[in-house]
Amino acid sequence: MAKEQLAYDEFMKGLWRENPVFVQVLGLCPLLAVTNSAINGLAMGLASFFVLLGSSILVSLFKSYIPKQVRISCFIIIIATFVTVVDYTLAAALPVIHKELGAFIPLIVANCLILGRMEAFASRNTLRMSVADAFGMGAGFLFALVSLGAVREILGVGELFGIALFGANFEPWVIMILPPGGFITLGVMLLYFNWLEEKKNKIDKQLATEDGVN
Amino acid sequence: MSEDKVEQAAVADEPSPARLIGTLAIAGLVSGVIIIAIYLATFETIKENKARELREAVFRVLPNVSKMQKLLLKEGKLEVSYKEEKGEEPIYAGYDDNNTFMGYAIPSDGPGFADTISVLYGYRPSDRKVIGMWILASRETPGLGDKIYKDAAFVANFDDLAIEPPIVATKRGKSKPNEIDAITGATISSVAVARIINKGNDYWVSRLPEPGAEPAYVEVETPPEAEDAQAQ
Amino acid sequence: MTQKDPKLLIQPGPQLRQQMTTPVVMRDVWYALTPATLAGIWFFGLGAFLVLLACIAGAVLVEWYFAPEEKRGYFLGDGTAILTGWLLGLTLPPALPLWMAFLGGVVAVGIGKTIWGGMGANIFNPALVGRAFLLATFPIAMTTWTAPGDFFTIPSSLFALPLMTGVVDTVTQASPLGMMKFEHVDTPFIDLLFGNTSGSLGETSGLLLILGGLYLWWRRDLDWRIPVGILGTAIIFSLILFMVDADKYPGPIFTVFSGGMLLGAIFMATDPVTSPLTQKGTWIFAIGIGLLVVLIRVFGGFPEGMMYAILLMNAATPLIDMYTQPRVFGRELDQK
Asked: Closest Cα partner for A133 from A78, A72, A56, A77?
């Protein structure tokens, strides 16, 4: 029971409390580059999710066999293998999306989020916890990519996952599918998350002082 | 004193170089095997995807065409080619169901507003006209420059376009057979497309055989290595 | 603690106060802008007035919303948000849908000012940030210029629903700059002087803008070096180009009186927050803008370059300030 609770906690940590994008502000390169539509965000998110999960499992399994002097090289080899698998699979199965994402699929290797989780979590925790962590962080990253892509697609072309939302007379916000739109949307979302955090802290503080009085 | 001891213990714990090399070698080996396996597993599909993409583009710029073959310039002469060669600059010949030659699909590229634009256009030598245009790759501004392929009216400009004198993009409504209507707000991209086609014509038109002397369609007995270029 | 109407005020220096506070300066700028604004409304009709109001509404709303609760009254009182919205409105095409104008006002104050920490902390001119956003977001609506027309006809494009395209039903006409850039058609000087041309609603009347500038200079609200530096550089640079090839490049008079040159030079580049503090720096700033405007207009892809020129030099302002710090009195030059 306690174990279940802990694993769930790790998952929620990645998805929300320590969201890799909105709280840790990691992995912004692919985030800003490919989120000009929700579907691209989804594809990128799933690809990263798969790489993160697979690498976490392997690193966690072999953590005691990997000497710490060569751990980074080993992590990179493991990550790169999964990325290559994703790259070829996408090129074969979904050539259109593969073309859209272009160089950013191979660049998942360099995503600091993934190497960061290997170093900070998977190489120090049990398989079970690492899987929970990878699920949480991967889902958090996916959530960020899709929500950013959705906002930009809705405003930028008036569609969501390619389905027109506003009819023919929609005036697209061209900037939203251009790079500045990515920065503006991300900025507004970070603003929102910081505001939530601040509000939560205020409430916690209030609760703490009330407790103190009692 | 005690710290020194800890340090010494750590040094004693230091894995041997052989162990480090061994670990990395095994990791690399396993990784290599997996990568080669996935490469082999997806190779055929990826190649097919690329060939299909090309075929669709060629059929788009050459109306009424159902077969195509790749042509390479060898010592000033166009020859049918099956193999992929390094540094090749192929053009594609399109034929209808009766194997009658219909026109060439010529790739050309050049700078656009944002990045290089790659164009494939259909050219009919019998009346020296461009008969179709398709953008293979571009990074023009979404909503403006990308109209060079999203705006059907602009693409239709190239369905029947004289190539002499060189193609001109105009903003005042086309009135001559060599003019196209530039897109409002994307003049630079429109002019770029015209310029890219002119560039292709400059190179290719003088090198093409006389009308009527085009390479005939060669039925392929599908030699194994012919599949890549032909795919038909 | 604070007593109303105290008999004796004891406080640390400075004891000498002058009347030049932010609200006073803002009022002066309002007065200076009024003639050119009225001319714009006169030429482009009541619709132009509505566009202005929408911009101001967006700007003020954001200012009010993000101000700390106890300071809300004061934040509006200094009039900067109204001025930002107003200036933004003057740079917009008169037939822009109102929701876009409103959005521009929101972005101008929200992203242009509030996010940096409020007035005095922003790097870029807020009104121009709003305009840059609108131009990048709605490139077609932002470059659809209507010809001056009947006073009471309001273009129906103004009332497009939010997120929807406004269909311009009035007569459209390329702006003088556009005509010069793409078709090499000159516009008569007299039209440029009084403002009877198509263009942004507050930039067309050169004469009234200059009058407003003179008023500000007389009231000492304006650093004369900036407009003089910008216009002087632009005149000299365009004169050189004009002498090289008179058919290809517009002359200096056209350069000064067309587009947003005067509006930008007098009312936007002079924003004390986003321009350098030192005199030497001010000259560098102004000359930079003058050069950039002509460069963008003549060699760039856009017909107008005033906005980008000012924004670019805004970005350079902290650097200029750093390198033009005057020597502290009594210290050697090479001492830090």
From this structure: A56
C330 is a domain residue: no
Q: Is residue B6 pLDDT above 60, yes or no?
A: no
Query: Cα A91 vs. chain centroid, distance in angstroms?
Result: 22
C-beta neighbour count of B5 within 10 angstroms: 9
**Tokens at residue A89, please?**
């699979």
**Token output for C92:** 């917009």
- Closest by Cβ to A174, choosing from C136, C160, C164: C136
Q: Write the CATH number for C122.
A: 1.10.3430
Do C140 and B185 form a contact (C-beta atoms < 8 A)? yes
In angstroms, the CA A45 to CA A50 distance is 9
Å between C277 CA and nearest CA of chain A: 30
Residues of A in contact with B50 (CB under 8 A): 95
H helices, E strands: number in chain C: 14, 0
**Residue B188 Cα to chain centre, angstroms:** 22
Domain boundaries, chain A: 2-213
Residue C329 falls inside a structural domain: no
ipTM for the complex shown = 0.81
User: Which residues on C lie below 8 Å from A171 (Cβ)?
Assistant: 97, 100, 138, 141, 160, 163-166
| pLDDT tens-digit map of C16-70 | 666 667 778 888 888 888 888 888 888 888 888 999 999 999 998 888 888 777 6
* A69/B contact by beta carbon, under 8 A: yes
The span from the CA of C174 to the CA of B154, in Å, is 22
Q: In what order do the strands lie in the sheet with B116-124?
A: B77-81, B67-74, B91-95, B101-111, B116-124, B129-137, B161-162
Q: Cβ contact (<8 Å) for A170 and C137?
A: no
- Binding partners of C (≥3 Cβ pairs within 8 A): A, B
